[in-house]
Amino acid sequence: MTDHYKESNELIVLAAPISNYYKKFKKQIISFQIEYAKKILASKDDVIILANKSNMSTYSESLGKNRVLDFPMHDIWMRDFTITNPHKPIMFRYTAAGQGVSKNAQKLADNTQYQFLKLANKSKLSFIKTDLLNDGGNLVDNYYGDAILSKKFLVDNKLNISQATKKLLALGFDRVAFIEPDEPYGLQHSDGIVSFINKDNVIINTYQDRRYTTKLKSDISNALPNVNISEIVTSHCESTTYDKNFGSAFGLYVNMLVTNNNIYLPQYDIDTDMIAISQMEKITTKNIIPINCAEISKLGGSVRCMSLQLKGENRDKLMTLAEKSL
């Protein structure tokens, strides 16, 4: 069997903060993205920043012109409105929840996704497109056909588990686990609860509510037998939320970005940071790359939320487009 985690390095795509919504945090976001990008490059993965003419020079001065593409997105959370799984890319329809609770939220979500679709078409990316509603953050998979989604997917698409599983299997998945969200509101993404670090190992948050933990492990194990489940320390703090419509990601280490050889692990300038690193080093032989997300996480996302991952031909196509744009 091909090891999809060792085929090649990955391209991580980030989006500059263009929307007025992020105006107050623009400098912090850009600074974070530059430091994150430097660590990506130092770790032998690739990176491209999607920016506009007004901030391209800020990025290119630190990263090089070939790492910046003049093709701005409407939002910074590239995970949610783009394509999932760099091995077998799928584009779901981005949900209204990703754009807040306004009456025209679905229209805003569609427009946000359409902007990425224009880039995908221009660079001729390959992927499957479906009308099923789902944010990329609500699909955690292992590149081998196993996927974990929160039950928000069922609500969004008005499906029961059997119906939803059938539709996802038709898209190429082999096994699907549906888990209860750990929050009664907000985005309810599975990547704030679980993370695959390789084919057979899943990391989950440590919860004070052990009944929820037991149910979570049971839901995963019943659908994905033989998958090992490990807990990672969690220091979640909702009081750090900037926008009441989106829960804070502060203290969530599970929102790590996993590539072929590296794990980009969120850090929050708190005591549990080193514990999280130590726990991960005992579970995996991949390189653990600490990424400080203390401020960014207050906007509702962390490392994985901000990152689109591309591999193989799709990686090469977008990098070629960036080079031709110089």
Automatic annotation (TrEMBL):
GO terms for biological process: putrescine biosynthetic process. It comes from the Bacteria. This is Agmatine deiminase family protein. GO terms for molecular function: agmatine deiminase activity; protein-arginine deiminase activity. Keywords: Hydrolase. InterPro entries: Peptidyl-Arg-deiminase_porph. Transmembrane segments: none annotated. It comes from Francisella salimarina.
